[in-house]
Specification:
It contains 4 helices and 9 strands; from the N terminus they run βββαβββαββαβα. It is α+β, with helices and mostly antiparallel strands and 256 residues long. It folds into 2 domains: 179 residues, no CATH class; 68 residues, no CATH class. The relative contact order is 0.15.
Amino acid sequence: MFVVLILCAVFDQDIRPWEGGIATSVVTEFENLDGHGHGSKIEAVSMLPSLLCLFPWRGGLDYKLFAAKLRCMNGFVSLTRDRDTGRVYPDPVDGRCRIQYSPSVFDQKHALEGLIGSAKIAYISGAKESHTTYQGVPPFIRPTASDTPDEGINNVAFQEWIKKFRHDDLLSIEQSFFVSAHQMGTCRMGATAKTSVVDPTGKVWGTEGLYIADASVFPSSSGVNPMVTNMAISDWTSRNLAKEMAKAQKAGKSRL
């Protein structure tokens, strides 16, 4: 799964961010913060008006003024490859499927580093405002040149704003609108029924005719957008399924 935080930067010029290609840029500087492949990628995000609904609500007037700036905005998304997992389990009362997941402090810190990196990119690019989905910290409003000398990301006001993100009291899901994307690993593939849900061919252990071919068979989070991997898994699983169907047909058994 990816833990997602978003930053919208407001510029002076007319950008019209809803036009053109989406997800056309990526920053990988923060993707390996622990030395084991866990961290955040920064990507350009599709700036449709509905995206603004993800940001903290601070009143009707504030939202109207914020939405009016959309044509001058650019968006950044911090996609964090999580290390710590949740679980899927049957409800002990009625047996319904239940999901339990909260980003750990370890993964939240990586998400915040990606968000801070996005803010630095926006600041250097000339953004006059930075709004985030992190509720605990207000938007950053760039001081005017007459207020204080601009020293790049070393600007005192900007550095004070960043410090608020790294305050331990703010590392909680209650202070933010964390979003999850590309859920993976709930039916992971493996070599034994004890440690996995499906075998290396995509077949569910102990169940004839049941195959799974999506991101749920990933053994862990991929760390990249999983579309191509999903296509490869589907191709692999379908080929295995076709072989099993051919064997059954030759043996005179019913089709799967």
